[in-house]
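Researcher: Please translate sequence to structure tokens.
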Amino acid sequence: MIGKLKGLIDSYGEDYVLLDVGGVGYQVHCSVRTLQHLPAPGEAAVLSIETYVREDQIKLFGFRTDQEREWFRLLQTVQGVGAKVALAVLGTLAPADLANAIALRDKAAVARTPGVGPKVAERIVTELKDKAPAFANVDPAVVHLAGAVDDQRAPRPVADAISALVNLGYGQPQAAAAIASAARSAGESAETAQLIRLGLKELSK
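Model: Translation complete:
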């Protein structure tokens, strides 16, 4: 199996790069994001590789980092997500942004991917929610709160305060982060109005 390729960029196709490794040209399929970050033809590049072997073909998928390749694998553990959809998701969201979106149950962010509808986005967020926090760089308390709100386990004042901020035009992850911070400073007995006030103060910083 090929795990990494280092060579010179020969040329680009619509969804692939031709990488010249010692005179052998490897056609490597990449996400839009990866293709945009690769250098011009004639320059050196290194790609982490995922090798697909089928009866009728061998296909190489390339990534700028091992972490991006790991997400490519993780995404395909979700029902209905194949290599094409996984690459499209990674073309829309960088690995860190994808991890944060899943950790915060932000289905809308995942659904921005071309070809990914609300149902597939929901499956991605639901099925990978336990794996994403390890890659995410958001406050664990916010991840916990986002999960509680999504599962309808959050205290009523907290859920109502987040809902109010969303209705004011803030994104769900922003609102959850602000209210998590507000709840920490106000204590468990805080009322909805107080949480909204503190949450808005947090958002205006």
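Researcher: Any highlights?
Model: Residues 156 and 192 are 8 Å apart (CA to CA).
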